[in-house]
Design a protein that fits this description.
By secondary structure, the protein is an alpha/beta fold. A five-stranded parallel sheet has the order 2-1-3-4-5, sandwiched between helices. The chain starts with a strand and ends with a helix. The chain has one domain (about 1-140): Rossmann fold, CATH 3.40.50.9100. Helix 2 (about 25-40) packs parallel to helix 5 and helix 3 (about 55-65) runs parallel beside helix 4. The longest helix is centred in the N-terminal third of the chain and has 14 residues, at about 25-40. It has helices at about 20, 25-40, 55-65, 80-90, 130-140; strands at about 1-5, 45-50, 70-75, 95-100, 120-125. The chain binds 1,3,4-trihydroxy-5-OXO-cyclohexanecarboxylic acid (DQA). 1,3,4-trihydroxy-5-OXO-cyclohexanecarboxylic acid (DQA) binds near residues 73, 99, 100 and 103. Pathway: Metabolic intermediate biosynthesis; chorismate biosynthesis; chorismate from D-erythrose 4-phosphate and phosphoenolpyruvate: step 3/7. Catalyzes a trans-dehydration via an enolate intermediate. It comes from Thioclava dalianensis. Keywords: Amino-acid biosynthesis, Aromatic amino acid biosynthesis, Lyase.
């Protein structure tokens, strides 16, 4: 079973980008953390990142065939993208929304998420550990299937 971990714009710069907000861990660190957690439970993870909205939609379509669950940090598209919400609504498995920062402590435009209405759970403000917690939750939901 494979969990797809999807990342939106600017997250390729994780570790370098505004470290006072997002920390110094990189997307490679996210991959390693999630792969270790998944491995113990005989799950796999695949990590994707794109700065393009349509590419993220394509990655969600790919997940329809290949993934048992989606963990998504859509970055700024969280707050703007009906297209990503619509794509997630075509996916049948669990979806968890992750934000590295606590978006509720930040500007008001970050308080609304189009994705939360589809997500089975939302993690914000746990740093990159949020991705690991989401993977743990997927495992506890799906390990028996
Ligand atoms: C983010 C929060 C978003 O508001 C922002 O646009 C990001 C990253 C986070 O992980 O905290 O790019 O999703």
């Amino acid at each position: 079973k494979t969990i797809h971990i999807l990342n939106g714009p600017n997250l390729n710069l994780l570790g370098k980008r505004q470290p006072e907000i997002y920390g110094t861990d990189t997307l490679d660190d996210v991959r390693t953390l999630c792969a270790e957690i998944a491995h113990e439970a005989k799950f796999k993870v695949e990590l994707f990142q794109s700065n393009y909205e349509g590419a993220i939609v394509d990655q969600i379509h790919e997940a329809r065939e290949k993934a048992c669950a989606i963990v998504i940090n859509a970055g700024a598209y969280t707050h703007t993208s009906v297209a990503i919400l619509d794509a997630l609504n075509t996916f049948e498995g669990p979806v968890f929304e992750v934000h590295i920062s606590n978006v509720y402590k930040r500007e008001a435009f970050r308080h609304h998420s189009f994705i939360s209405g589809r997500a089975d759970g939302v993690l914000a403000g746990f740093g990159i550990e949020g991705y690991g917690l989401a993977v743990r939750r997927v495992i506890s939901l799906l390990a028996k299937d």
